[in-house]
Amino acid sequence: MSVEINPLARLCQVLCTKFPSIVVPAVLQMLQQVAAASQNPQQLFAKAAVYYAIGLNASEISPKMTELGFPFHKWYGTALQDELSHDQGLPQHKLIRKRAIWLIGKFVPFCTSNELFCTMLSVLMRLLFSENDVVLLLTAIDTLSAMLGLIEKFPGSTAMFQNAAPRLFKRLFEVIRLLGDMDARVEVFSFCSRLVELLTPLSGEVTEEIIRNVEGMFRERGANREDQWPLQCEFVGLLTGLVRAMKNSSLELRGVILPILQYCMQVVHCTIIYACANTRAT
User: Is the pTM of this model over 0.85?
Assistant: First the structure.
């Protein structure tokens, strides 16, 4: 999910890029100043703003943090992990938790520790299963998506996704049903498709969970409206991945995929037809 950058944040980003030796230490000094923010809303909002500035400039700030003896893994262990684990129910704390989740996604490309990567992955999965706030859930899924592209570098992380797969897909489809925004639903579906590709070959339990949910969503009232076509595209893309994952067992999809294809081929919409053509070719 995209993050809108306001003009002041953009200015900070440009300054960190052009003058890192001057600006980055100043930003890190601000981090130390807000680290022990009290319950005062103004202080917590200031902390969230500093987190935002740091995340936007992660590529410049990450090596500088290491140089100054405060690498990301130390920051995570002393502050971020605790902020992720404790929900105090106040809006300003929710904003801090959202920023902490988002920061992981910004710094994870620079992570070199297998232990830290797997720890953050475990924390995010627990949050995904336990959290009910839609904004936090979407931020967690966005960060998990960033981590998904890096798992080959970290032994053990693939197994974590595989072990959690049945619950993970069930939860992701629950989140999709909570969402009213089409773009957000499409992004979560896209994450599901990437997971299918990662977890090939799929267990029967996972396959059944995906088929049941996709079929149910496809047959929901209003699912064939024109404004639902982007989601229909994701249905077909996910089923394409399932066919590839199941290989010779793909006949199990027959009862689900054929009605969807028949519908899609009746729709005058080039994106849907192109997706269907790819699925049929598979």
Answer: no
Q: How many Cβ atoms are within 10 Å of 248's Cβ, its own excluded?
A: 5
Q: Structural domain tally of the chain? A: 2
Q: Are residues 104 and 4 in the same domain?
A: yes
Which tokens in the block code for residue 68?
Answer: 């100054």
List CB contacts of 118: < 8 A, sequence separation 6 or more. 154, 156, 157, 160
Residue written as token pair 């297998």: 114
100 and 4 within one domain:
yes
**C-alpha dist (Å) from residue 271 to 37, 184, 237:** 49, 19, 11
Token pair belonging to 22: 């001057």
CB distance 5 to 46 below 8 Å = no
- Among candidate residues 51, 44, 157, the one with its CA nearest the CA of residue 107: 51
Report phi then psi at 59, rounded to 5.
Answer: -65, -35
Beta strands in 166-236 (DSSP E): none
pLDDT of residue 142: 96
10-residue block means of pLDDT along the chain (282 residues)? 56 79 82 74 82 87 86 90 75 85 95 94 94 93 95 92 93 92 90 89 82 77 64 77 65 60 53 46 46
217 found inside a domain:
yes
